What we know:
mainly alpha, globular, about 75% helix
Amino acid sequence: xxxxxxxxxxxxxxxxxxxxxxxxxxxxxxxxxxxxxxxxxxxxxxxxxxxxxxxxxxxxxxxxxxxxxxxxxxxxxxxxxxxxxxxxxxxxxxxxxxxxxxxxxxxxxxxxxxxxxxxxxxxxxxxxxxxxxxxxxxxxxxxxxxxxxxxxxxxxxxxxxxxxxxxxxxxxxxxxxxxxxxxxxxxxxxxxxxxxxxxxxxxxxxxxxxxxxxxxxxxxxxxxxxxxxxxxxxxxxxxxxxxxxxxxxxxxxxxxxxxxxxxxxxxxxxxxxxxxxxxxxxxxxxxxxxxxxxxxxxxxxxxxxxxxxxxxxxxxxxxxxxxxxxxxxxxxxxxxxxxxxxxxxxxxxxxxxxxxxxxxxxxxxxxxxxxxxxxxxxxxxxxxxxxxxxxxxxxxxxxxxxxxxxxxxxxxxxxxxxxxxxxxxxxxxxxxxxxxxxxxxxxxxxxxxxxxxxxxxxxxxxxxxxxxxxxxxxxxxxxxxxxxxxxxxxxxxxxxxxxxxxxxxxxxxx
Length: 510
């Protein structure tokens, strides 16, 4: 009898790790773009003749578009195949990166950033899914180690790279540097992996579900991004966005849970391991990312750091994260992942507690060393948590679960950042009033300053500046204390997950 033709030979050795490098690089590039524009907003706003407040739409538009497409990953993978989705997303990302760099006006730049975000959204979960698909089951944790390393390091590298480019070259290069990476990764990954693409099936388009997703995610993301600027619920715009997001979310849940062909597979939440994993991941990453935003903000506004040096102070956690990622990946298959997660997140809580006792005399190394130590723990929370959540679902649900996991992670980061920056400002203002009222004899201090040659106005401004710096320092320490509490809660919650029956991560399509 004739035998069926053999399938493509599995990737091994150099081809396997080359493909893994390409997928990891793609994820790094997309995550990098979520933060690289942060420090470049003033340059962009000035060059395109808009206010800095308007300039933040360069960040918001990308985040909204990306957040909308991330949960669609499962549906796109079923309909077109993960390799094709990944390759065409890379092509679109590179094309619209070029368009962003050449945008002649601010309106065109925002439009191209939306398109860039729509293309970038599927790349994160697709790179994760494809890594799990091409690696043998017993090496799945190593695949997740590589992917997690790029996800953790990229948000740290973004502001540093963005600051260096903006200070030394034209702002457009923060987008143009994506083009060669997108071309190499897209073409290389397609040629290496297309033979391993999974079968597709014609899944009906859930237009209502898609519309509801766009409405509630878009409203929520804009509310989070603009809330601080518009004074949160003191603004009718924010109240309206909140109402639309709440109603849209409720309608989305009802529709997707009752639809025969939902565009987002919410049924993965029936797995307790997945639910606990994404909750712990969201809490931990939210607190971590908020502190990543807070530290350079504090250093630049209160401690006299430039954007570049603030980035240097915060980047050292990437060193140990890179070193420890492959080591932790090996530990995942040998030990209870809940123990690894709990250890790592409690370590992060300890570092946050360490940072909660900064003073205004803190040196560069006082700030950089805790960051360096923090890097040791980051792979312990990211790799095992991702492994736990994805190994808790069925293999055919991996793409949908990865999309939802990434969506919740990015949304929690935005939400936590908005909460922390608002609380930081409010606490600074309150502490400033407390400290100003507690000065024992401010007039005597002013007299001493004027006696040293300062004018009355200069003396008053200097005293006011000293009070403000101390108020910001107290507020910053309280924010670190709050992150320590969140980390401790997350480290405890992981034990609600069932003990994993299979230690290695799933093989995706095996």
